[in-house]
Specification:
- Two copies of one chain form a homodimer.
- With 381 residues, the first copy, chain A, is α/β, with parallel strands linked by helices.
- Chain A contains eleven helices and twelve strands.
- Chain A has an eight-stranded mixed beta sheet with strand order 1-4-8-5-9-10-11-12, with helices on both faces.
- The longest helix of chain A is centred in the middle third of the chain and has 16 residues.
- The radius of gyration of chain A is 20 Å and the shape is globular.
- Chains A and B meet through helix 3, helix 4, helix 5, helix 6 and helix 7 of A and helix 3, helix 4, helix 5, helix 6 and helix 7 of B.
Chain lengths: 381, 381
């Protein structure tokens, strides 16, 4: 189904591809202008939808993950949020019909810069229209309608996905009961913009970038590796690395003695993880998804953050932040929680003291699971 | 004097060049092996040396500054530490003979990778031997002997220069009375190593790098610009940028509407500062100086940080850290101060609450000047 649309796709084994069928003849209109004539969304699901279609949970991902959030009978490999989703887990698939989608603009099956434009027969590349978090949320809404779900029990997301879950709540206030936003923000701050902007520029400085018109097999991998290393530096926290690596050196026999080669374990760790990443992500998708986080600003929905947040009509929201997050610092989750409270939305605001920085939600099962489990179990019954 | 030795040099107007004359026929032996047949040091000085040569203060710089720390009759342009050095200023040139040197390995006149190797007639480039902070301190000691100073009243340094001032105190305990180390550390932590390692790799990924054998006029400027931006991100602090830039956009008429071009003021600020930097710094010097900070480890002087610090015999030390420094965090200055106290060296330990991050010592006159002035004025009398 629609394989030809995804010329540059790392679609995971179990992902279902669905073409959004309710778009008008103008296709999907993008928030910053332009349109997509067709949109295919890759998703995975766990659990069963009730006959009343009232138990759906939609998960929005961060920048890099696919729809494979958890293992399933179709794909037993661990998902990126394996600890969180499953029978009797915090997002309990005995109770909920859980859907995770690959974001619009991504490269794991959903329409993105690597897809073919059906109107030209060519890859979109950098002719893909400007992408916003709101567009990601909008395609999530369309996906759920395709699956027979008009109203979500909960929208859940972390990092970029947390922004998308909030955008969903603002844009579709009548279609959402509960909101969970983890390590998210009402708008990007300059330090986060600077770090992401630099990652994108590093990729574009790779001669293989070729203005985004690189061919399959000739991707700007060197630039991607450097950008990923900078990403990793921003996702984690200093003290975690102090205890994990300290000043350990790589084994003596691997040292060349040359001043610029890998010497410390931390350098080796970054190299290993960067190499693992670059063969599974499209450089153009990276540009678009990274940029949409910089642009995200709830104040665009009514003139101020409070005005935007006031549009949210959920029964209750859960806002989680992490003490050591430098990319989406605690003050940003406080802002979200305060703004919800100020507009009379009930909110649980939890600050998790984890050494794992922005990535904590991927790692810190012990602290995250009870918080999410409690919130969701209180949301029905 | 020795112009031919500094083929790649941005020597500032007032810098004096002096060839170290007391080196034996083997030249200057480098700590990690290899040697320099000759060493020229660029320095500037302010104030007068007493007949007893007992009022000398030597300033070691961070990675990028030249010896031009303050203005003078020879060069009236402001120096990089203009607020700190001068008549009646914190480092009082009415009282002290103040010397600032361009570091060994640098590109402002002192022998470095851009200099000609007198034994081959070619630029050192990446054949320059491995450089350590201790080598920088050692050439500082030789410089002062050339100037007729056997014993320093004080060694002062910030960032890499703070490491060098500590290295001086450890290596020449009989030749130093007072030590000032600002935003320094006993050893580099993995996050700082990661950030610097990535900057160096970004430069080496520029095709113009050519394994360090680039020609004058064909330097890897694109890589240098990206590395400098990453440096700037690490030198400053999030809240400073929040108040300075927030989410301000560049003027509408400069917006192209293309998704990857400069949009936010923070991006424009980084671009401006990077472009300013790249035409005044040598890429090979950047590699060597950056790497020597990663390698610095006081534990190499006796088996542990405490054992290394125990070699210091100053009358008193001043250790300053800044609350918002992510590159040399407060815990590292606490470690220095605790270690000095534990070995019975009197120490003033000051934590400055400044929004300016690692760069605070360059900016925060109001908070730094009184602390340094008090320490130095109590050091004589």
């Amino acid at each position: 189904m629609a394989d030809e649309e995804n010329a540059y796709s790392f679609t995971t084994r179990a992902s279902q591809l669905i073409k959004l069928s309710r778009l008008g003849k103008n296709g999907f209109p993008m928030r910053r202008g332009g349109r997509l004539p067709e949109v295919t969304v890759a998703y995975e699901s766990w659990g069963e939808l009730t006959p009343g279609a009232d138990n759906a949970v939609l998960i929005f991902t961060g920048l890099s993950p696919s729809a494979h959030a958890a293992s399933s009978s179709e794909d037993s490999s661990p998902g990126w949020w394996e600890y969180m989703i499953g029978p009797d887990k915090a997002i309990d698939t005995n109770r909920f019909f859980v859907v995770c989608m690959n974001s619009l603009g991504g490269c794991y099956g959903t329409t993105g810069p690597g897809s073919l434009n059906p109107e030209t027969g060519n890859k979109y590349g950098v002719d893909f229209p400007n992408l916003t978090v709101e567009d990601i949320a909008g395609t999530g809404h369309e996906l759920m309608r395709e699956l027979g779900v008009e109203n979500l029990h909960a929208a859940v997301g972390s990092s970029m996905g947390g922004m998308a879950s909030i955008a969903y709540a603002i844009q579709f206030p009548q279609n959402l009961e509960y909101l969970i936003a983890i390590s998210a923000a009402a708008q990007a701050l300059p330090l986060s913009i600077a770090i992401r902007s630099l990652q994108r520029e590093i990729i574009r400085s790779d001669p293989a970038w070729k203005d985004g018109r690189y061919k399959t097999g000739e991707e700007p991998l060197a630039g991607m590796a450097l950008a990923r290393k900078l990403g990793l530096v921003s996702y984690r926290a200093a003290d975690e690395w102090n205890s994990k690596f300290d000043r350990s050196k790589i084994p003596e026999e691997k040292l060349t003695g040359k001043p610029f080669e890998i010497d410390f374990e931390i350098e080796s760790y970054l190299e290993y993880n960067a190499q693992k990443f670059i063969h599974s992500f499209d450089a153009n998708s990276y540009q678009y998804l990274s940029r949409c986080m910089d642009w995200f600003d709830i104040a665009e929905h009514g003139g101020s953050v409070d005005a935007g947040m006031a549009k949210i009509k959920v029964k209750k929201a859960l806002i989680i932040g992490v003490t050591t997050d430098i990319l989406f610092p605690l003050r940003q989750q406080r802002e979200l929680a305060d703004s919800l409270s100020a507009t009379n939305t009930e909110v649980d605001h939890v600050e998790i003291d984890s050494p794992n920085g922005h990535d904590a939600f991927l790692i810190d099962d012990r602290q995250f699971s009870p918080v999410v489990a409690k919130f969701l179990s209180e949301s029905y019954g």
